[in-house]
Amino acid sequence: MRNFTGWLSYFEPGYQVVRAHVSPTKVAIDWREEGYEGGLIATSVDGEHYEGTYTYKGSTERSPMSLVLYESKGGAVVLLGDYRDQVNGDGSCMFQLVPDLAADKPAGIPVKLSPESQQVLDRSAAQLAKRLTAMEKAKTKPAKRKGGKK
Questions:
Q1: What DSSP state is assigned to residue 106?
Q2: Cα-flanking dihedrals φ and ψ of residue 134, to 5°?
Q3: What gap in Å lies between CA 96 and CA 124, rounded to an integer?
Q4: Partners of 72 in beta bridges
Q5: Domain coordinates of the chain in residue numbers?
Q6: Closest CA to 62 of 78, 86, 43
Q7: Has residue 112 got a pLDDT over 70?
Q8: pLDDT tens string 6-20
Q9: What is the pLDDT, as a whole number, of residue 131?
Q10: If pLDDT is split at 50, 70 and 90, which confidence band does 53 have?
Q11: Would you tell me which CATH number, out of the four given (2.40.128, 1.10.10, 3.30.590, 2.60.120), belongs to the domain 2-140?
C-alpha cells in the first residue's frame, strides 16, 4: 500500500485530503470539507474500479460510493467517483492524489510539486473534469421521441 496526500474536489475550493492509502485492492481516504471530516473505504478486484462506502465523523450512516482510478507514469493518482446520498442527493467527486514523498512529514501536508509536474496534474484534472461534466450532462438529457410530434 502506498501513502498519498492531495486534494478532494467537488469542483469547489475548500476541500483537503488529510490521508490517503491506495493499493490494487483497497482505497482509504480521510478528508476535511468546510469544517466537516469525512472518510471512505473501498475495495477492488481489478485495481481500477473500487466499490465501498463513505461517512462523516459523528454519523453512523454509511453511504455507497464507486470510484475509478487513473494513475500517471509519475505516480500521481486521480479517483473519479459517484456517490449516493439520501439526504442531499447523488453526485460525483474527484480526488487528486500525489505520492507523499516526505516520510518524516505528517500526512496531510501537501507535497510541493515542480511547476512542470503541477501543470501536468492540473491539465489532467481539467481533462477529467470535462469528461465527468460531459458524462453528467449525458445522464440528464431527455430521450428523443421517435415518430414526430404528438
A1: P
A2: -65, -40
A3: 10
A4: none
A5: 2-140
A6: 86
A7: no
A8: 666 654 556 788 888
A9: 73
A10: very high
A11: 2.40.128
pLDDT at 150 over 50: no
Distance CA 65, CA 49 (A): 11
Cell 501536468 locates to: 120
User: Is this prediction's pTM over 0.90?
Assistant: no
Q: With beta carbons less than 8 A apart as the criterion, state whether 39 and 27 touch.
A: no
Q: Are 76 and 98 in contact (CB under 8 A)?
A: yes
Q: Which residue's entry shows cell 501513502?
A: 3
Rounded average pLDDT over 37-63: 91
Q: pLDDT at residue 52 above 90?
A: yes
Paired strand residues for 40? 29, 54
DSSP state of 47: S
β-strands 36-43, 77-83 pairing: unpaired
Specify the 3-state DSSP secondary structure of 135.
helix
